């Protein structure tokens, strides 16, 4: 029994040594992945995709805003009209101009443009009861919105204006007038310095 036990121990020791000595067999693909050989190899542009996208067109320069052609009145339609809404409360003025725009869409009236004019500030001076000195009491800001209509029908115009006057809120002024070149220039802020330089160049 002792001989057999020593023989078995000797056989087991030889088996362990042979297992340690023999190299592990690996799959060639897995071996290459583990070694990371692809990092040192050139890719030759494989995986690039930006050249496949269409090139963006060059940005065009913003053209200077030009005055639109004024429509001439006919026997059945009016010329280009400006509905000027003004008041001291900007929220009420803005909502009423939106109401006019929505009403025009419902009645099929063509709205050519809708814009805001420069806010005008008015100083209110207060004179003392005794004396002649005056001091500034408050500032009133007048907000203006313009809804520009095109080819308003003569039959729809009286009904349209009647609806506007009935829905006109308090403290809001409503003015309807024909559009002119002066109204177009009033949209832009004056630059007296630039105009003075232009005058020097011309003369």
From TrEMBL:
Chain ranges of the Small ribosomal subunit protein uS10 domain: 82-177
GO cellular component: mitochondrial inner membrane; mitochondrial ribosome; ribonucleoprotein complex
InterPro entries membership: Ribosomal_mL48, Ribosomal_uS10_dom, Ribosomal_uS10_dom_sf
Highest taxon in the source lineage: Eukaryota
Major location (coarse): mitochondrion
Location in or out of the cell: Mitochondrion
Gene3D superfamilies for the chain: Ribosomal protein S10 domain
Keywords of the record: Mitochondrion, Ribonucleoprotein, Ribosomal protein, Transit peptide
Pfam families xref list: Ribosomal_S10 (PF00338)
SMART domains documented for this protein: Ribosomal_S10
Similarity section: Belongs to the mitochondrion-specific ribosomal protein mL48 family.
UniProt-recorded name of the protein: Large ribosomal subunit protein mL48
């Amino acid at each position: 029994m002792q001989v057999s036990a020593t023989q078995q121990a000797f056989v087991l020791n030889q088996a362990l040594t042979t297992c340690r000595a023999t190299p592990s067999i690996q799959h060639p693909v897995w071996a290459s992945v583990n070694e990371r050989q692809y990092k040192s190899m050139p890719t030759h542009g494989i995986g690039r995709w930006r050249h496949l996208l269409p090139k963006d067109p060059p940005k065009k320069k913003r053209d200077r805003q030009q005055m639109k052609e004024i429509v001439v009145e006919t026997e059945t339609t009016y010329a280009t009209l400006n509905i000027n809404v003004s008041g001291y409360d900007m929220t009420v003025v803005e909502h009423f101009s939106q109401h006019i725009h929505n009403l025009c869409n419902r009645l099929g009236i063509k709205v050519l443009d809708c814009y805001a004019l420069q806010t005008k500030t008015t100083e209110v001076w207060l004179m003392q009861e005794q004396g002649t000195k005056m001091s500034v009491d408050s500032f009133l800001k007048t907000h203006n919105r313009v809804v520009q209509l095109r080819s308003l029908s003569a039959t729809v115009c009286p009904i349209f204006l009647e609806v506007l006057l009935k829905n006109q809120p308090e403290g809001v002024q409503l003015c309807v007038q024909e559009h002119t070149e002066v109204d177009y220039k009033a949209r832009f802020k004056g630059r007296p310095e630039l105009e003075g330089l232009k005058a020097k160049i011309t003369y």
